[in-house]
User: Fold this.
Amino acid sequence: RTCFPHDRLNLTTGTIETQALVDTDLILQSQTMKFASAIALAAISGASAFVAPQGPAASTTQLSMSDVRTSVRDDIGVGGGSPLYRAGGTARDLAEIWDNSSPVIVQGGSLRTWSFANPAIESVQVLLKTEGRPLDADVELWQGPDNTPHKMRVYVEDGALRTFNAVIGTPRGPNTVAIRNIGQLEFPLDAVVRPDRDDGLAAGIASVATRSETIQGGALRTYPFNPTVDSVAIILKTDGRPLNARIELLQGPNNNKQVVELYTEDGLDRPFFAIVETPGSGNVVRVVNTAPVEFPLYASVDAYRVGGGGDWADDGLMIGRAF
Assistant:
C-alpha cells in the first residue's frame, strides 16, 4: 500500500496506520487567538503600572476676595451671630462706645482739636455721626509744626444710619487730631476721639479681616455683601510707602452712601482701620488705589458684624412692619 503524507508506517507490526487529517485553518486560527490574548494581557498589566495611586481629594484653594465667594461675606446663615465673636475678638460694640463717651459737637464750618501728649498712645479712635443729616468733614493728624502724616476727607449721606468709625495710628507722640466740619452751619456733627486700647476697635477689626490682597496703583477692587451683613471691617496698609486710597460704599448704580479719601505718609507705620456700616441690601464696598503704579497697597475687607436677619425672611423678602 502506498503511504500518503497523512499515513504512518508502523515498523514493529509492518502495517500502515491512517492518521486523521487536521484542518489547518482551525490550527492557525487557534494559534492566532492565543497570541492576541497574550498581547492584550501584557498591555493591561503594563498600563496598570502607570496609574497614579488614589489619595484623598485635595481641597480647592481660594483666590482673591473679589473673585471668590467667601464663607464670611456670602455663605452666612440667618441668625448666625457676629463673626467677630466667632473669631474670638473682644472689641467693644460701636453703640457701647457712643454710650460711654461724651461726644463733642462740631458746628458747620468750625474746627476742633484733640491733643495726646502721652507717647504710649499708639492709635486713636475717631467716630463721627449726625442726627440724620449729611456728614462732610476733614480729619487730620498733626505731629509737629507743619507736619500732617495722616489726612482724611469723609462724606456720609446719612450720619445717623451710617456712622463713621476709624482708627488712625499715632506713634511717637505727642499727636493732635483735628476735625473740621466743612459742611454748612445747618449740618453739625458729633465727634468722639479717644485712645484705642489693646482690646479696642483695631484689635476687633484685625481679628476679622485676616485675609488681604494687593491692589496695584490705579486699580480698584469691589466687595459685594449679603443683606444680613450689618457692618464691614476694612484694613488698608502698605510696605512702608505712602498710602493714597478712596473707599466708597455703594448701594445701587453710582449711588455713593459713604466716601473716604485717605492719605497716609507711611502705610506700614500708620495703617488705616475702619468699620463701615452696611444696612439694607445691595451694599458694595469699592477700594480704589489712587496712587501711581509704584505704590501698591494691601487691602483686607470682610464682614464685621452679621445680624440675625432683621426684617428679612428666609426667602430674601422683606417683611413689612407697622410703625
Q: What stands out?
A: Residues 47-53, 55-91, 313-323 have pLDDT under 50 and may be disordered. Residues 109 and 182 are 5 Å apart (CA to CA). The first helix runs from residue 24 to 48.
